Amino acid sequence: MTFKATTALPDARAFLADAPVLAKRRAAEAGSQSDSKQLRVAIVHYWLVSMRGGEKVVEELCRMFPQADIFTLVCNRDRISDFLKTRNIHTSFLQKIPGAQRHYTKMLPLMPFALEQFDLQDYDLVLSSESGPAKGIITRADALHICYCHSPMRYIWDQFHVYRHGLPWVGRALMSITAPMLRAWDVTTASRVDMFVANSDYVASRIRRFYDRESVVIHPPVATDDFVVGKGKGEFYLYAGQLTAYKRPDIAVRACTEAGRKLVVIGEGEQLPYLKSIAGPTVEFLGHQPFNVLRDHLSRCRALLFPGIEDFGILPVEVMASGRPVLAFDAGGARETVSSPHVGFRFAQQTTEALLETMAAFEEVEDDIDPQAIRAHALKFSSAVFRDSLAGLIEQQLSHHGDRSADVFRRRPG
Questions:
Q1: Which of 2, 8, 58, 309 could bond 332 through an S-S bridge, CB–CB 3.0 to 4.6 Å?
Q2: CDD domains, alphabetically (predicted)?
Q3: Which of the 8 DSSP states describes residue 401?
Q4: C-alpha to C-alpha distance for 37 and 408, rounded to whole angstroms
């Protein structure tokens, strides 16, 4: 029996529109169908050392495939969710290197070797979660390999020089030597994937550029049910996230300082001292905060300021799930999430001046914005929509290969 992705991209996109209907039909029919051999599923993730967007995708994949085993290069069990701790997690030989859980990114040249040591010959379906190296695993010849790509590895492609400049001279020299080999490996291993799924149109374009492969876009899951619409008018502008140069928090700080607008900054990073040096009295820095504090600020802000470029950007959807608008730079995933003046505004240039103009335009119509309409828009990116869309696509691919196609869905929780 051969597992091979043969469906053309337009057909796959058309199928996704029917995924929720088919999912309900599968649930209704599951009780009347007899069980057959269980599909063996492997989930491959680059590393499990925190709980960010990629790890939330892994959680949803585990809910869809409760029988799946997880393979990852390095795992820090103290920093992953209780749900993931219950899964069967296999780590690579990198796990045994002292300090690996903290300095895993410095082991990039070893990662291809570590990935290829994983033995996946018993698995019928392999789902790789790619941002660091994950898709390069070696599967059985007749297995189906679907890669959910958060982004091709930025540190060897479009952000290579940014990452390289941040290293000491020894690291820069080593990266200059190893990067060409890693790029060759990365492109070569794209042929090991039967179907790419991109988390945004922006990432789909990068997959096309670097791998010369087409992909289906399924936006990542956002836990929209964790957020509630705030009451009353927003009290302050908000910036939240890592305080690193490429996210451009300086634009938000400068704009609110010049306009005399109150700005709350939640997050930490190497730019914090610099940002404090350019901030005026209307800017408040809270540092890292637990989720409940972040959630409270999302529901009370006037708008989220989002001046960076993200492949998708979960935070804007979370603030929209709280009924608050987003003022975002017109690039990356924000083009797909901040898609209407009813939910926010996008500014064309990544400058303080452009953000100031956008803030002025927003404040003219601020009282007319409907928080419930903003939340309704955010629900299009919920975890349930993600599961139904991806399940429909996977079932479609498996259905070309005989009677194994229904097995996983007969066992999938409703």
A1: 309
A2: GT4_WbaZ-like
A3: G
A4: 10
**Could you give phi then psi for residue 170, rounded to 5 degrees?**
-65, -45
Among the listed residues 16, 128, 39, the one whose alpha carbon sits nearest the alpha carbon of residue 410: 39
CB atoms under 10 Å from CB of 312, counted, come to: 26
Q: Which of 406 and 32 is assigned the larger pLDDT?
A: 406
Query: What is the C-alpha to C-alpha distance for residues 338 and 361, in angstroms, rounded to an integer?
Result: 16
Q: Which two tokens stand for residue 25?
A: 């039909």
128: Cβ–Cβ under 8 A, 6 or more apart, which residues? 43, 44, 45, 134, 135, 137, 145, 146, 147, 148, 193
Number of H helices, E strands in the chain: 18, 13
Compute φ and ψ for 389, nearest 5 degrees: -65, -45
Residue 72 CA from chain centroid, whole number: 17
- Residues 129-151 have pLDDT tens digits of 998 789 999 999 999 999 999 99
Q: Coil, helix or strand for 222?
A: strand
* C-alpha dist (Å) from residue 258 to 16, 45, 359: 46, 43, 12
Q: Can you list the domains of the chain with their CATH numbers?
A: 38-221+383-410 (3.40.50), 224-380 (3.40.50.2000)
Instruction: Specify whether the CB–CB gap between 145 and 58 falls below 8 A.
Output: no
Eight-state DSSP code of residue 381 = G
| Type of residue numbered 26 | R
Beta strands in 39-164 (DSSP E): 41-45, 69-72, 89-91, 125-130, 144-149
Question: Reduced to 3 states, what is the DSSP secondary structure of residue 144?
Answer: strand
97: which residues sit within 8 A by CB, 6+ positions away?
107
Distance CA 241, CA 221 (A): 18
Looking at residue 161, its pLDDT comes to 66
Q: Residues with Cβ < 8 Å from 150, sequence gap 6 or more?
A: 53, 54, 57, 129, 130, 131, 199, 203, 220, 311, 312
Q: How far apart are CA 141 and CA 4, in angstroms?
A: 9
Q: Which helix (H) or strand (E) holds 321?
A: helix 314-321
| pLDDT tens digits, 137-188 | 999 999 999 999 999 987 777 766 666 676 677 777 777 787 878 888 888 9
How many other CB atoms are there within 10 angstroms of residue 65's CB atom? Answer: 22
